[in-house]
UniProtKB/TrEMBL annotation:
Region (Disordered): 1-29
Protein source organism: Chloropicon roscoffensis
Name of this chain's protein: F-box domain-containing protein
InterPro entries: Ankyrin_rpt-contain_sf, F-box-like_dom_sf, SecEffector_AnkRepeat
Coiled coil: none
PANTHER family registered for this protein in UniProt: ANKYRIN REPEAT-CONTAINING PROTEIN
Length: 310
């Protein structure tokens, strides 16, 4: 009995000194579950994609290349091809077969030509969000920097493109959500686009317009935009390039209005006539010839003043 009593406390001490089994951390367990679920979902997605790819190739592949060329030529322009190619492998291969460059061109020269051709299709806010989420964005703005890099888009190009399209919604999103800033060329692009709403929004944000804005509005034939700019307090300044752009593009009503103001918009009569003649704007030439003007001095029709914006 005594020996049994003596062994009791010792046995209890031995029992309590044994390490307790650690409880499993629920966060660790949940993390492992999510990893397994993710792997399973990825495998399922690959299977679905493979099935869709096979279906696309079977259905879409029935159309001959020449018909696909017609579809792309008549319904898409260059800046739509990257999005199309990223939709599925079939479209990517089709664009390659048709020797299409998968690049987005946001240069002013290309966009102005597209606008004149009547093939300019405005991109939605969703398109801008897709670009920002998919590609690297180069911040900042340098007038002399015309370098563009593969797989990247310049912040300034996106922002000015939105101004050119005439979308306050997109401009606001780019500024508030992506941190894009107004730049010295924004006024010119907004003038080209001709949206009075965009010009008003830029004014509200404290943007300082200069001569290029009036030149862009005149070149684009946007008389309402030009009147808005000149109606600001103080008026947006203008120079010979407003008349020059209007004459070059055959915008006679804009040219007449600009020259009828007090004081009239500056111009170089011979330069305006030369450009109007080069582009076949006989109605503009006729009007210019009727004007009595003493500003017919020798002048380069286009100097380096705005060349960095093109």
């Amino acid at each position: 009995m005594g020996g049994s009593d003596a062994a009791g406390p010792s046995a209890k001490r031995a029992k309590t000194s044994e390490p307790e089994e650690e409880e499993e951390d629920p966060l660790v367990r949940r993390r492992e579950e999510l990893i397994l679920q993710g792997a399973s979902a990825a495998e399922s997605l690959r299977a679905v994609c493979a099935k869709l790819q096979a279906k696309n190739e079977k259905l879409l592949g029935r159309l001959p290349p020449e018909l696909w060329k017609k579809i792309l030529d008549e319904n898409l322009h260059q800046n739509d091809l990257v999005a199309l190619a990223m939709t599925c492998r079939f479209f990517r291969d089709t664009a390659k077969i048709l020797s299409r460059k998968l690049e987005t061109n946001l240069s002013s020269i290309y966009l102005l030509e597209l606008l004149k051709s009547g093939k300019m299709a405005s991109h939605s806010l969703g398109w801008f969000q897709w670009v920002c989420d998919t590609f690297e964005t180069q911040p900042g703005f340098k007038m002399s920097d015309n370098m563009r890099f593969m797989g990247a888009v310049r912040e300034v190009d996106l922002f000015n493109y939105a101004a050119f399209q005439g979308s306050v919604e997109i401009l606001r999103w780019l500024m508030e959500e992506k941190g894009c800033k107004l730049n010295v060329a924004t006024g010119l692009w907004a003038g080209w686009g001709g949206s009075v709403e965009v010009l008003g929004y830029l004014e509200e944000r404290g943007y300082e317009f200069f001569e290029a804005a009036c030149a862009g509005a005149a070149e684009g034939g946007h008389l309402k935009a030009l009147k808005f700019l000149r109606g600001l307090d103080p008026p947006c300044p203008w120079n010979k390039y407003a008349c020059f752009g209007a004459a070059e593009e055959g915008r006679l009503e804009v040219l007449k209005w600009a020259r009828s103001q007090d004081p009239p918009c500056p111009w170089v009569r011979s330069a305006c006539r030369e450009k109007a003649s080069k582009h076949g704007h006989e109605h503009v030439i006729k009007w210019i010839d009727q004007q009595e003007d003493e500003s017919d001095t020798e002048c380069s029709v286009f100097d380096e003043e705005y060349s960095d914006f093109y």
